[in-house]
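If it is no trouble, can you show me the amino acids of a protein and the tokens describing how it folds?
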Amino acid sequence: MFLQHMKHLFFTLLTIILFSSCSEYQKALKNDDIAKKYELGISYYEQAQDGAKRPKAKYRKAIKLFEQILPQYRGKPQGEKLAFVYANSYYELEDYFLSGYQFERFTKAYPDSDRVEEAAFKSARSYYEGSPRYSLDQADTDKALDKLQLYFVTYPEGQFIEEANVMATELGQKLEKKAYEIAKQYHHTENYKPAIEAFDNYLVDYPGSSYREKAIYYKFESAYLLAINSYDYLVEERLLVAKSYLDNYFKYYQDGELSVKANELKADIEERLQEYS
């Protein structure tokens, strides 16, 4: 009986505390007292940072309060802290579109802040998190790389440099794969001239690519297929061009992954060219 009474008392107290907390939040939202909104918003933010239960709910409440007072605190001593925790609340909620934008604003508004490096990195990290898979439009990937490059230039020995390097490498590989797949798609859809041009551009842009052998080979194969599917008066000239691409492939990959297929096509080219001797 005593335990049952204590349990009832505990839940009653918990309900009162929760109701009081919600009531305080609702009152602050409707109140014109910006100092109260600031104090309560910072309290919610710090509770979430300290590992309180349901931290996302705390960040959301903090954001709602911060949104109401940000303009009034611009230029005031608390404005810098407010702008940072506002951006970081979105970051913690994984709302990276808004956190990237808000951290970017922070770096411009407070370039001398002690937290400007962290803000610059988190802005870049936000755009990195928003980068889609390689098959989709890569505008956000380009933006993330621009932000990371700015971080590298501004903080060459920064505290986040190792993580930034890992992210930049990953994003670069994504763009690399995207460019390769575009060129490959031209090849597979029998658009051989655009394929050759795309592979050419790819090899210039990504000279150390892990797809380098395949790019050189498929550039050759595109030229070969273009040649043998051309009008008779163009075949010889285009076969010679294809052969020069093939020679370039063997220069680097005599025993490469695609060398067997390359040798088969080499024999076919030589046989076809004999008809023009």
Summary: The first helix runs from residue 2 to 30. Confidence is low (pLDDT under 50) at residues 12-20. DSSP finds twelve helices and no strands in the chain. The two ends are 108 Å apart (CA to CA).
